[in-house]
Every structure is written in structure tokens, then in C-alpha cells.
Inverse folding.
């Protein structure tokens, strides 16, 4: 209880980078729900091993190019890499983003899966990302 109170006190100001630039702030809130959910998933994929400031900047650049399933499928790997650089492991993330986006288009009509079990089957998506996607994209607490 004492530790929890200390954490609450430290977080009272909400002044950490994650508060202003975390995944929950990286998507276009005015986009259609399906596009918003896709953007949430991509921001989670980019965020792994990457500082919030870098993820936020990469997402902004992607959104300036029209961040949708179709726009990513039409984009060549080199361009996608240039846009997301310098996120951590950007070369692998280009591959995972393209593979995941193709699966979303084929299997889910361009939307993201509604379950953690299906989300973790996507290339580059782990359990933590899946639970966060459920919370942010689907407004469903699934385990965190």
C-alpha cells in the first residue's frame, strides 16, 4: 500500500513523456473507428524498444502520408523505412508492419482483431501490445 501511494504521488502531475506522446495520443482521433484502431496498433508496434518522443514523431510523419491500411499496402518498403526511422529496429518493423497490414486487409477487412489471441498471431505483435490494443482501440480491459 505504501508503494502504491508513492507511485500515485509521483504520477499525480502526469508530466512524463508517455502522458503527452504515448500510444494513446498517437492516433488520429477524428479518423473513422477502423482507421483509428489500425493507427493504435501501428503505434504500438513502433513503440517497442523506442522512446515515446520518437514513436510520436514517426506516427505524425505516417499520418501526414495518410495512415490507412491501403496507404501502407501501396507504400514501398524503402519509403516506409524512411518515414519511421529512427524507431528502434525499424528494418524489422517495416517487414512486420507490411505483413500485419496485409493480414488485416485479407482476414479482417482492414480492421484489427477483437481478441488478444488473434492480435498476438500478427507479426510483430506481442502480448503486452495486444492487451494495450484491446484497451485503447476496443475500450476493453483484457488483462493489464
Amino acid at each position: 500500500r505504501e508503494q502504491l501511494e508513492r507511485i500515485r504521488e509521483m504520477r499525480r502531475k502526469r508530466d512524463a513523456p508517455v502522458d503527452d506522446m504515448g500510444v494513446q495520443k498517437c492516433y488520429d482521433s477524428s479518423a473513422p473507428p477502423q482507421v483509428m484502431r489500425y493507427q493504435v496498433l501501428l503505434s504500438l508496434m513502433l513503440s517497442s524498444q523506442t522512446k515515446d518522443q520518437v514513436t510520436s514523431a514517426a506516427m505524425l510523419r505516417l499520418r501526414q502520408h495518410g495512415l490507412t491500411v491501403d496507404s501502407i499496402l501501396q507504400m514501398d518498403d524503402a519509403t516506409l523505412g524512411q518515414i519511421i526511422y529512427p524507431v528502434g529496429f525499424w528494418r524489422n518493423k517495416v517487414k512486420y508492419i507490411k505483413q500485419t497490414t496485409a493480414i488485416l486487409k485479407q482476414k479482417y477487412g482492414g480492421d484489427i482483431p477483437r481478441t488478444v489471441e488473434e492480435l498476438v498471431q500478427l507479426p510483430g505483435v506481442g502480448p503486452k501490445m495486444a492487451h494495450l490494443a484491446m484497451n485503447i482501440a476496443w475500450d476493453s480491459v483484457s488483462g493489464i
About this structure: Residues 89 and 136 are 24 Å apart (CA to CA). Residues 21-138 form a domain with the Endonuclease III; domain 1 fold (CATH 1.10.340.30).
